[in-house]
Amino acid sequence: MPRSRSALIVLLAGLAGAGMLQAQSPWAATETVAMPDVGGRIDHLAVDLTTGRLFVAALGNDSVEVLDVRAGRWLRRLTGFKEPQGIAFAPERNIIAVANGGSGELDLVDGADFHVVKTVSLGGDADNVRYDPTTARLYVGYGGGALAAVELDGRRSGDVKLAGHPESFQLEKNGPRIFVNVPDAHHIAVVDRTSMKLLATWPVTDAAANYPMALDEANHRLFIGCRRPATVLVYDTSSGKRVGSAPIVGDTDDLFYDAARKRLYVVGGEGFVDVLHQDTPDHLARLARVPSASGARTALFVPDQGRLYLAVPQRGAQKSEIRVFGVPK
Q: With CB atoms 3.0 to 4.6 Å apart as the test, which of 5, 78, 95, 167 could cross-link to 64 if both were Cys?
């Protein structure tokens, strides 16, 4: 057999063994949108489904990038932020909420002309933001350990103290609870968002650095992404007990539950997106490992569009961009 052909067979066998051939076709990015002159780390994303705008917290650039994902083009850059981390969109008031890690402030930005309507001082390291459409209220993690409730007019309507800086958190749609990752305290905090009181803490002992989180409310399951080791832990939200686990891509900072397809999308800075299938409420099995890019550890899954928007940071020859993945059925 010629050496070139045998080398090709060896290469293809290696790719198949790594799961890369499986990931190339149905899971490949369908398009990319370049973000010109954006350097440094990129954090979280939010979408306006009515206009098709995607808002990207470009933390290392001190900016928010605005993209038109319908037309597949970059629109403009919003400046004046200080390490924007968390971002959320409230369609009822056309408000973009931007949490600034550098200043500890939450900026409420008008989605029409992009002026800052209100700035809410939180005290330090404003991070993840979630919007609750049923109450038209924002929740923001900040500081050495706290979660704030903020109205869309900027009024601060509640706070709950936590044992460490909060990372990702999820809101129940059919209940009052908020589940909060508190990695420094090695636990998950459970908060009642009506009273803004701490209800319980669930220990995270099988892994450390529990940063991202996703919720399967129908099956009462909470998915916790950990970095040390790279593992997703499954918790029963009725009992607070760990009921499952699975290995995942390294350096994860975002994960999303796709209820329609019973899948978990795990985004890791190691350079892959893991797609896990939920065989049973407690058991996850890897369906695909999709090559992405170095440092690309944040994304946004939009169920209404069946799309995953992956944020790729600029690193050397690697350009800053958003890669769009259509989720196969």
A: 78
Distant-in-sequence, close-in-space partners of 23: CB < 8 Å, separation ≥ 6 = 288, 289, 290, 291
Render pLDDT for 78-124 as a digit per residue (tens, 0 to 9).
999 999 999 999 999 999 999 999 999 999 999 999 999 999 999 89
3-state secondary structure 282-303: CEEEEEEEEECCCCCCEEEEEC
**From its phi and psi, is residue 251 left (phi > 0), alpha (psi between -120 and 50) or beta?**
left
Local structure of 183: helix, strand or coil: helix
Q: Read off the CATH number of the domain in which 265 is found.
A: 2.40.10.480
Instruction: Flag whether 264 is in a domain.
Output: yes
Under DSSP, the state recorded for 204 is -
Backbone angles phi, psi at 20, to 5 degrees: -75, -35
Number of domains in the chain: 1
- Residue 102 inside a domain? The answer is no
Domain with 233, as residue range(s), is 209-292
